[in-house]
Amino acid sequence: MSGNARGKRKKGETSKTGRDEDASGSQGPPVKKARSTSVAKDKGKEKATKTPWPEYFNELYKIFKALNTVLAFCSSRKQLATTFPVVRSSVEALLKQPLDLQKVAELKALLPDVIKFAYIPQNELRVHESSQKRSKSPDYGSALTPRRELQGFDDNEHVLVLDFIEVKPKAKKLERLPVETLIPSPALTPAGVKKLIEIRNQRFETAVEELLQAAAECGETPDFLVQGAAREHIPVNPSTIKALASTSQTGPTQHKVPSPEERRSISEIIEELQNLDWYKEQIISRRTTEAREPTLGHLDTSPSENIMKALEATRNIDSFYSHQAEAINSLAKGSHVIVSTSTASGKSVIYQVPVLMQLERDRHATAIFVYPTKALAQDQKVAFQQLASACVGLEDLQVHTYDGDTPQDQRAGIRDNASVIFTNFDMIHASILPHEDNWRRFLKNLKIFAVDELHYYTGLLGSHVAFIMRRFRRVCAAVGNRHARFVSCSATISNPRQHMKNIFGVDDIDVITNDGAPSGPKDFVIWNPPLVDLAEPSLGRESTMLQATALMRYLMKNGIRTIMFCKIRKVCELAMKTLRTELTSEGRLDILEKVMAYRGGYSQSDRRRIEREAFGGHLLGIVATNALELGVDIGTLDAVIMLGFPFNVASMRQQSGRAGRRSRDALAILVTDSTPTDQHYVQYPDDLFSARSDDLVVELEGRAVLESHLQCAAHEMPLSDEDAQYFGELFHPICESQLVRDKQGWYHPNPKFLPHPAKHVSIRGVEEERYTVIDVTNSQTGGAAGSKILEEIEFSRALFETYEGGFIHQGLTYIVREVSHDDRIAKLVRSDVNWTTKPRDFTDIDAAQTYRIKCVQGSPYHTYYGRVEIQTIVFGFFKLRGSQILDTVFLETPPFHRETMGWWVDIPRNTLNVMRSKGINAAEAIHAAEHAIMNCFAMQQDIKTECKVAAKEYRRDPSERKRPARLIFYDAQGQGSVAAARAFDHGWSSLSSFFCNYKQLPGSALMQDALERTEACDCENGCLRCTKSTWCKEGNEVSSKVGALIVLRSLLDLPLRLDEIPDAPYLIDPLMETVVEATQVRALDDIEVEPTT
Length: 1093
What we know:
The protein is an alpha/beta fold. Helix content is 34%, strand content 18%. The strands form eight sheets. Strands 3, 27, 28, 29, 30, 31, 33 and 35 form an eight-stranded mixed sheet that branches. A seven-stranded mixed sheet has the order 4-14-19-18-15-17-16, sandwiched between helices.
């Protein structure tokens, strides 16, 4: 049961950050693990049981106390920068003696998790860029020499910082970051300073006591241990390393990164990792998959000697795995094929070898290879070109990419001369099919149409692709080609035959699931960041970001080529920025130059450059979004780090499969954050492996999607009654009502879609206008290079990323100087500040007009379907350093409005009264009930709901934004989607996926399924199996399982079982409520209530 009086209710622990990562690299001897330096709760006994210290430690304690006093004073003066020269002069004044660098390093060795002693870029101390400085804002750079004017950004400007890594007190939530809780910048009172000094002194005493005890047990001399370890903690100025490197001199001692051939095994790496001083039992689960030997197969018709020589020369292939041979044999006998095997099993050979065999027999033969992402297409194109060029007789084969980046002046030549094109469904829909008359040579000779990563096409996108393929097959048949073979490759899915049939509309399908490829041993590790302070669990856990980047740095230093997957673009850039900062402070510029970020939005030239580096194996580390999740052979990756649980188990399996693609041992690490979703898998790690893959849904009966593609098909070639074989039972009703029929019986597109019907159909949802982000640094400082386009971002992203604050690109920080909404341009300048920004915003999702009404089965209540309005307002931003708020800035920006379709049901007044009487937070109940319903809908990735934000729901003062008591669901892709309509009309229950077949249910039956699933779940406060969702963008922080049950039972007119619900110890103050009774939504005239079918 959850209490609800804000200010009194106890929420679950939240993630805290602020810990420095200086000790989390491989600096310092990894032989002995530092024990916990948490403050003992019983401080009074500490002095009484203290053993006599050697004089060395008494002298070191004096230095520590003086340092503690000075830094505590700095903590109470936010404008003071704790650079080593500033701190040293004050400490020497207290000690009456010089402060030696070696002594500080000894303190660092003794307290590696408490003291920060490292070089950082000078500008990381600044809060404000000069032209944006505000009079009432603190400036951390006031103790430093003023920075030179912006010209060239001299990376050699570093300063040595000496400070304590604070354990910050728990603060109220202001805004929720993806993995961290924001906390105000500290401003200590005199009493707070005194307490802080005492806590730090206690930590020193505890550390010494533990060291003396450990040294006595192993027969070591404690002062020698500290002095020996201190040598590794003397900081090195990165500018010195860079200068020495530029003159080819030998720099300071640093370990060389082992080559892929020289690196140690993953088991050895994990064993050493568990003995490092910063390891604190973070590994809560480790599962090892044993190596698998290859199973070879036999081809009925062997490829030519030339093809086999080319395979051996380019890919070291002299035989075929069993699944490869079975697929090639099936294609040879004329069947369509789907291969559903594990990642890195050599699936591309299945369609590339048959294409080469066809081309040897007929140089007029053509083939189409389709990929979901441009990165994957580029990767596969390079590999196929190398194979073809090594094949005698096919050296001059015309192989081209045909996508949105292909220059217009090259497209005609590709169309007329290419034998093989690498493309995507967007281009087939919008460029090839509308101009089929220009492609007839190519289509008439088409032998193989291959689709890689077929599991990617599901939900609304899958529905669009299914109708594109029916249009494509119809055009091929019209030009005389009924013999093209369709082949698809997929990760392991539950029903590959049905999915391929849904997408391609063909029946003669051979399914191949037996994987004959070898694989090396792989370790899967769940890494849960440790508590900030074992003595104070309420402080939460250390930063997921810092833990993940520390792991990545450690792995790269040991020659482990690593990719880190981030869920969103902003986190990707923050991770890259953190790596850039920490590697620079460690002086590991040799590693930094081999690390790059890759995500959507980068310019074409940047994407190609990064792809060349990645595919060529030149990078040691990549930080990416799921843009590289699919099938890309990124050199010889050894490890995958997932920064937070991906949105579903299927994505987690895809990402973890990116490593170990050369049959070598590999490592996958899931670094969990503090959200309920991630912590669920910490408690139940087996769920990651035992969970069955969801059935992939392709909706073929949605009238809106089908009509749009019939308009396109009629424009390509007029439709006739015979075309019903491609488009199903709704073909005739839609053609009769929505298309134009001529006297000969042919159907033509409705004039409102002309001249280009395909432009009215966005297969990936609503197309947004894009903002161009331009770096104008050089143009402002007189540089010769001028302005440079950094990236293009959608309008919805620009709203949150291009306000006049900070911006990150490749881990480098920029200041947004100017935003022109008329020209869709944002101008930025480089600025090496060590803060980032987070927008302060809110979004309201409101039912605007009712189009249809249905009864809730067996209940007096109704569900509604209609127009939904979404409004987002960005009213300011925080300046952040880690999770610490440095400044709060207010903005005046126009609201961002958009419309979509959705369905909703209002919560009855008596239900609200019941929850109020029981002390149940209505916002928690509504949010949990919404996710319980979405969890029972198989197309849930295509719908959204109004996720409740903890910062609003748990405020300590009244909220002016009162939200209606309503469950609301809307199309994520905007108008033109069918998911919300399907949920309202029929719904597809994912509960039935346990029987490998979907059953259609009325919308109210989704609520019944949600209730049954929630009541059957044995969890106490809700979990991913019932009322929480991996798709919740607010981390499921606002949730009540008991409340969800009350809401669902009331809507279904079932007894509420109030006697089973204990009374809350206190009631909610009506002034603090954020949910109010919903008002009736305006409806269209003459709407009748539809009966539930």
